[in-house]
Amino acid sequence: MERVILSQKSYAAAYRCTDCPQSNQAEGCPKWIELIETNTVTQQERMTCGCVDQLFPNIAVELIKAANRPAAEISAMRDQVASTMERATMQAIQGIHRARDVTPAKVSLFGRLRLALGGAA
Q1: Are the CB atoms for 48 and 59 separated by under 8 Å?
Q2: Long-range contacts of 85-93, Cβ-Cβ distance < 8 Å, separation of 24 or more
Q3: What pTM did the predictor assign?
Q4: Per-domain residue ranges for the chain?
């Protein structure tokens, strides 16, 4: 990937807001940016170009959206793990109850669990 580093010294038309060059290349202005926005409903992307002063609210919205995505994914994963653990616990408890009904009382709880899971006491 090509890396281009421009400093304020190399911009020919930097901060000429009355006659905006509408470019962030060497002949343009460092405040000109291109922002890719995604419609959350249709998942379509669009590129919005403009001065950073005008696009700052859009940048803030995109930043908030990006920050919320991992939280939603983590929440969904947490719910999935919780429901899986609940099902596994209920199956283990049911297995223990079945093992208790068919084994002598002197078999330990861990022995019953092993029996419920298909092993030897």
Answers
A1: no
A2: 92/116, 92/117
A3: 0.44
A4: 1-71, 78-121
